[in-house]
C-alpha cells in the first residue's frame, strides 16, 4: 500500500524522534482518516478529499518540526546578535592581516608585485573559513540544551554617541590623495618632465641642485602633512592646537617655496636653454614672483578658511 | 486603510495563546484530535490541524493533559483529558485572561475619544 497518506506519514515521521514514532504514526493516521471522513461526509470524492486534507496539513517537514519542537531557523534571535558582532569583529581584521603577512612573505621571497595575488587569495580563504566555522558553532549552540547563559545587556555597554563630524571622510581622503600625488610628482618630474633637451634627454622642471636639501625637506613636510590629516580625522573636528599645527606645516612648505621662487633657485636653469622665453632675467623674475604670490595666496586663504572652521567647531 | 496582511498578523498574535486555554477547557471532557478540532472550530476557535495535533502532544509532555488509547471504535484513537495540573494551570490562565479584559475595559473607559 502506498497511498498519498502513507507517503505523507513516512515523510513526516522520518525526522520525528524514534521512541515516539509509532505512537505519532498511529495517532496521525487516525486523525488524517477522521479528516478525510469529514470531507467525504460532505459529499467529496475520497481521492480529492485525501489531497485536500494533506494539503491542509501542509509541508511534512514543518509538521515534523512542530512535533519534535525543533527550531526552523539556523540561528535564532537569542544568538543572532552575538553571532553578527563576532563575525564583524573577526572579519574586520583577520583576513586583511593574514593576507598582508602572506603577501609580505611572498614579496620577501622575491616575487615582487606577484605577491599581491597569493595575499588576496589567502585573505578570501580565511574570510570563508571564519564565516563557516563561526556560523557552524552558533548553529550547534542554537540546538544545544540547555540554553547558554549570555551576559545580560547593561547600559554601560552603550557606545559613545557619534560626534557630529566636523571633518568629513571624503575631505580627508581628497587631501591625502593630493598630498601623495604631490610627493610622487617631485621625483617624477626629475625623470620624466615631458621637456626634452636637444639630445632628447629629459630636463627636470625643478633645479636638480635642490635635491641636496630642499626637495627632501619639502617631501618630509608633505609626509608630515599626510600624518596630520589622519590625526585630524581621528580627532574628528578642528581644534586650535590642530590649527596651530596646520599653520606650521603650511609655513614649513610655503616659506621655502616662496623664498626659492623669489631668489630664482626653484626652476632648472637648463630649462632656459630649451624655452627661449625663460632666458630673459625679467621674465624669470616675473615667473618667480607669480609662483611666490600664488603660494602666499593659497596658504593665506587656506589658513583663513581653517580658522573659520575651527572657530565654528570649537564654539559649537 | 490597514492592509489585510497586517490585520491577519495581529489577529494571529492575539489568538495564539488562546488556543491552549480553549483546549484545556474543552478537554475537561475527554476527546481525540479531530473531534477537538471540530469542537473548537464550532465554538469560534478556528485552529489549524497542523498546529493543534503537535500542541496536544506538547501539552501532554508538559503534564497538562493525560491520554488514553480507545481501541473500541473503527480506528484506534488517542483521547486527551485535562489533568489536575492542567486544571490548576488553566485557572491561572483564565484569571489572567479576565485580568487582561478588565484592564482593557478600564483603559477604554479612561481614554476620551
Automatic annotation (TrEMBL), chain A:
InterPro entries with a match to the protein in the record: Perm_prefix_1
Record Pfam families: HAAS (PF22564)
Transmembrane regions listed in the UniProt entry: 80-104, 116-141, 169-188, 208-231, 243-262, 286-304
Keywords: Membrane, Transmembrane, Transmembrane helix
Name recorded for this polypeptide: Uncharacterized protein
Provenance organism: Micromonospora tarensis
From TrEMBL, chain B:
SUPFAM superfamilies: Winged helix' DNA-binding domain
Location of the Transcription regulator PadR N-terminal domain: 27-91
Pfam families in the cross-refs: PadR
Listed name of the protein: Helix-turn-helix transcriptional regulator
